[in-house]
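Posting this for the archive.
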Amino acid sequence: MSNISQPTLSRRNFLAGAAAGLVGLAGAASLAGCSPAAKSTEETDLAATGAEPTLKEPTETREADIVIVGSGAAGCFAAYEAAKSGVGNILVVTKSGNATDSNFNEITGTASVETAALKEAGETFTVEDMYQRMINYAHWTVNARLLHECVKLLPSNIDIYDEMGVETMVLGDRYNFGFLNVHGFTEKNKGVNFEEGLQALGVEFLYDAPATAVLMEDGVATGVQCESGKDVINVNAKAVLVCTGGYLANEEKVAAEYGGCKVVNMGSLNNTGDGERIVLAAGGVAERIRGMGMNDIYGMNEKSTISVFDANPFMQLAFYGGLLTDPSGRRFMNEYMLAQEPMNGGGEATLHEKRYYAIFSENAVNAMKDSPYYQNIGAPAVWTSAATMFNAPLADFDANLASAQEEGWCFKASSIAELAEATGLSALPETVTEYDSYVAAGADPDFFKDPAFLQPIEDGSAAYYAFEYNPSAFNTFGGPRTDEQCRALDANSDPIPGLYVAGVENGSLFCSPYYAVGGSCSGLSQSSGRVAAKAMIEYIAGA
């Protein structure tokens, strides 16, 4: 673990540095490029409003000290913390069908600080530095005490991975943050490793059992009701943790939150907002902050059915900082932001559009057959993200270009005027003329784009291309409000006894846009699960 891994050409390896987390980055489980199946109107309404569900007559009743709803990063780390603290009866109920069916299994990197590996690499960035960066970036819109508790646990999260047999390595500074923090995973084995490790500690998993309600008695959470096939199972518990991974797979809820925008889900198809729904129905309140861990590093179109990690490389073109337009053909952003900050500022800009387009000349596209795009524009020193991540020619050039056209998200025409007609981008000719005048002048008076990225569109090419994209994301941020112990709060800001929320649907932990810290999504999710577990243990002891 002493060596720092340098960026490679692999699309898969990128997410370790971005992590959705950046993941935040977070990667994705069931990473289908196609949009998830639409939810029923009834399910959507419940997910959006938290309307009280109708409890069913149980066919089975189980007992637990702690029941954890969700088997992702927050759920697994909560189960670990509780088991290591001596809690004897821990049950994880999950919508997932197996240990690998979650965003947690797919993430390729996580945020940390002050670890042994980082110190060995010479990194001096501290817990205090990380906290200050995050809280200031969030402009104090999150629960500052909760964020502090989670950041303090980041170093020991890596120790837990080591204990569970999940190998990590320090990744390079891919976003030019000025510090190293992302620990990448060498193998995609987290789900199975944690399942086996937690089972050895006495934790039980119940798969294919989505929770439909929190059981309440006199204002106290006393368990959950879940359904497994035809069985309705009541799990009576002393404390309940909800961490089901957000609502990105609920198309109607996403559309309602983002003004009808189509966002292609690159995360788990299980993340339909169940956790938020059942917590609100139990008396919780929704926090005002909503956000997404954007996927515009890669680009995506709802017409494509290819996994993000194996996506057509022509999906990358929007990430290069060329000319981007809205569906009318007008520029709508400083394209460099998408190249440099794809998961926060740049990605957020695309959420104003149901779709957007990258415009390139044939000469520019063909040049990428033999050399990376950043070399074609002079390898500007200000560019770190895309130049680092995709330092290679476009793979399988002819076949992938043909495939993009066949799938209907790549358009080719002999002139900009004909391209506008083929795509419906009516304002495109005027936009290109104006943009090329900025190129000639070496200055962008609209969005003040760095001159190094001002490359001409009309360059005498025999043809011109438009590549169509939808905004896409790995996960959502936002959900029920909590205090610094991850206790769900009611409308009076009082804790609901026995009810806790962790992970990306903890509405008080994540900001919008995404934290400008690689791996913050997974890192904070893991920490929040542990914070919740510590609080549940204290609650149970005092009951």
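The longest strand covers residues 231-242. The longest helix spans residues 520-542.
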